[in-house]
Amino acid sequence: MTIRLVLAGCGNMGYAMLSGWLKSGKLPPAAVFVVEPNADLRKRAEALGCSAAADAGDIPADAVPDLVVIAVKPQVIRDVTAAYKRLGDGRTTFLSIAAGTPVATFEAILGDRAPIVRCMPNTPAAIGKGMMVVFSNRLVSDDTRRFVADLLSASGEVTDIDDEGLMDVVTAVSGSGPAYVFHFIEALTVAAEKAGLPAKTARLLAMQTVYGAASLAAESGEEPGVLRQQVTSPNGTTAAALAVLMGEDRLTHLLTEAVEAARLRSIELGR
Ligand SMILES: NC(=O)C1=CN([C@@H]2O[C@H](COP(=O)(O)OP(=O)(O)OC[C@H]3O[C@@H](n4cnc5c(N)ncnc54)[C@H](OP(=O)(O)O)[C@@H]3O)[C@@H](O)[C@H]2O)C=CC1
Ligand SMILES: O=C(O)[C@@H]1CCC=N1
């Protein structure tokens, strides 16, 4: 079958996206060629029905994929991208998910004919519940934008931005954000255990509470603040807890600091 998509890097995020695409049926596994040096990760991709190789040099020489997805660490991005220079003649679109790395870095390597899309996904993409934020260079045609948006929509919500400078804060909010929520689950579990619940029950309550609350916020169409007030009886238990979290805007300050730390790191990674 014709290779339509090359995935360079099938680690945490590359695999999450690949799984979402294949599950949706938008892409047949046989149309995907994975380049990944780690043998175990190659096997994992092959188990999905994709072809895989350790090196970009193993891609059939006559292959002209619609899309090359660059899903490697920002630290190796230049070397990895250079291996695909032959595909920079305008027929193949490049989609990078690397934190920090600007479109200009790819343009400098691939030349001035390559359509380049920069996307910031997150790991819930693996189950079709990701958040994908997309910035495209001027060579990406409307047709290609639609094609990429359709593919990415298999992984969850897709939104465009036209100011690339905002990608660092996007990364700090939705790219890294699932880790903040996972840590919240961990922290609530610890608090529940410290207050006397058995470990298994503590974990179940923390997990289902976050899942249920996020689902209610997404599905009810109600503002989070209104939903919060619906839980908070006057002078009740929730009010007592919220006085700790919201007093002096504690949690908001903490998250503002965390997002700023991630944003600054994203800028550093792009240098
Ligand atoms: N994880 C996340 O939640 C998110 C990650 N991202 C971005 O996604 C990118 C990948 O991150 P993540 O998946 O977490 O990282 P991983 O380390 O899990 O995956 C990257 C994979 O690329 C492999 N690799 C190294 N060199 C090459 C090469 N020359 N060709 C092909 N593959 C290669 C690595 O192998 P080896 O380990 O052997 O070097 C590794 O398996 C990063 O740029 C990150 O900023 C974006 C949004 C969210
Ligand atoms: O931690 C990181 O750098 C990557 C980018 C966003 C999520 N993970």
UniProtKB/TrEMBL annotation:
Pfam families: F420_oxidored, P5CR_dimer. Its main location: cytoplasm. Belongs to the pyrroline-5-carboxylate reductase family. Pathway: Amino-acid biosynthesis; L-proline biosynthesis; L-proline from L-glutamate 5-semialdehyde: step 1/1. GO terms for biological process: L-proline biosynthetic process. It catalyses: L-proline + NADP(+) = (S)-1-pyrroline-5-carboxylate + NADPH + 2 H(+); L-proline + NAD(+) = (S)-1-pyrroline-5-carboxylate + NADH + 2 H(+). The keyword Disulfide bond does not apply. The lineage of its organism: Bacteria, Pseudomonadati, Pseudomonadota, Alphaproteobacteria, Hyphomicrobiales. This is Pyrroline-5-carboxylate reductase. One of its GO terms (cellular component) is cytoplasm. The keyword tRNA-binding does not apply. Residues 7-99 form the Pyrroline-5-carboxylate reductase catalytic N-terminal domain. It is found in: Cytoplasm. Catalyzes the reduction of 1-pyrroline-5-carboxylate (PCA) to L-proline.
